[in-house]
Design brief:
Layout (H helix, E strand, L loop, with lengths): L1 E23 L9 E11 L4 E6 L5 E7 L3 E14 L5 H4 L5 H9 L2 H6 L9 H8 L12 H8 L8 H15 L1 E2 L10 H7 L1 E2 L1 H14 L4 E8 L16 E9 L3 E5 L11 E7 L8 E7 L3 E12 L2
Length: 307
């Protein structure tokens, strides 16, 4: 499936900003399930400095600085991307228990290096890379409450894939999608207590549950195609950013799951970036000197293209 994504972010400042420096993670990344053929920025006012690089996790970052007074900043990112329908057969055939997966992730690195798992997603390198996602991160801290919630899905000896799928389904059933309840800074404990949140919260919740059991889970930011109801026209700019998570399955790789929609992402999920949690993949962040109070508006349009 091919898409054109237009992501427009606009800041209005009460007073002029004299200088701002920003980082944008708004360019879809390339990996086996997805290929980005074109990505460009339109920034107004025009930046005095613009550079691109990859971060620690392999995400694409655009850095830009504006050194002229301005009371409005508009950042438009336009990308064209093809998302492939990835076969989940490699995961369906993997029956590793969640305890075995946990033990492989926690095994002594020297023992892993000497094991027979030398290639693919079961290799020492893949396990070592995944281990960083078992640790606490700035916005996700493992704990007893999360572990207790997770264990309702993780019975002794249960296949990892079956258990994490059940966890996804339970989050979908137990929690209410409520965009008015949380902000970026809402603690995960509040989400657990009130059983409310948005896609970011549900992804963090699942990640915290898995890490509390010693498993590796990472946060994914991106978009999801939304289709209009039958008989209605598609609204341009009505789409939004989305978030989901992935669990590492030794021998098969990273299995993505979307607890907000209770489904395995396929060709309607477009990936921007991944990391330990939202703090690693914030779409646009920076510092501004001056400006005072400001307002922010975001418009996202995910347009399916003819093949």
């Amino acid at each position: 499936m091919k898409y054109r994504i237009t992501h427009i972010t606009t800041y209005h400042y009460a007073h002029e900003v004299g200088l701002c420096q920003n980082e944008a993670r708004l360019q879809p990344r390339d990996f086996p399930r997805q290929q980005c053929s074109d990505s460009r920025f339109d920034i107004n006012p025009e930046p005095s400095d613009f550079q691109e690089r990859l971060d620690f996790f392999g995400n694409r970052i655009a850095y830009f600085a504006i050194q002229k007074p301005h009371s409005k900043l508009t950042v438009t990112a336009v990308s064209e991307v093809e998302v492939l329908t990835e076969s989940n057969q490699v995961f369906q055939d993997n029956t590793i228990s969640w305890e075995d997966a946990r033990d492989k992730l926690s095994a002594n690195p020297a023992q892993q290096a000497q094991s027979q798992l030398t290639t693919g997603h079961g290799s020492y390198e893949a396990l070592l890379e995944a281990r960083q996602y078992t640790l606490d991160s700035p916005m996700v801290t493992s704990g007893t409450e999360l572990g207790d919630y997770a264990r309702q899905s993780f019975a002794p000896g249960a296949p990892l894939i079956d258990a994490v799928t059940d966890l996804m389904e339970r989050i979908y059933q137990d929690f209410t999608y409520d965009p008015s309840f949380t902000t970026i800074a809402t603690p995960l404990a509040d989400v657990m207590r009130h059983r409310r949140g948005v896609c970011q919260d549900f992804a963090h919740l699942a990640i915290g549950c898995l890490r509390s059991l010693g498993l590796a889970a990472r946060y994914i930011s991106g978009y999801i195609e939304t289709l209009p109801a039958p008989g209605t026209e598609r609204l341009v700019g009505a789409d939004a950013s989305h978030a989901w998570f992935a669990v590492f399955v030794p021998g098969s790789g990273w299995l993505e799951l979307d607890p907000t929609n209770n489904k395995l992402p396929a060709d309607q999920h477009i990936t921007l970036a991944w990391g330990r949690d939202y703090a690693d993949v914030t779409p646009l962040k920076g510092i501004a000197f001056g400006g005072g109070r400001h307002s922010l508006s975001v418009s996202v349009d995910v347009l399916r293209l003819e093949s």
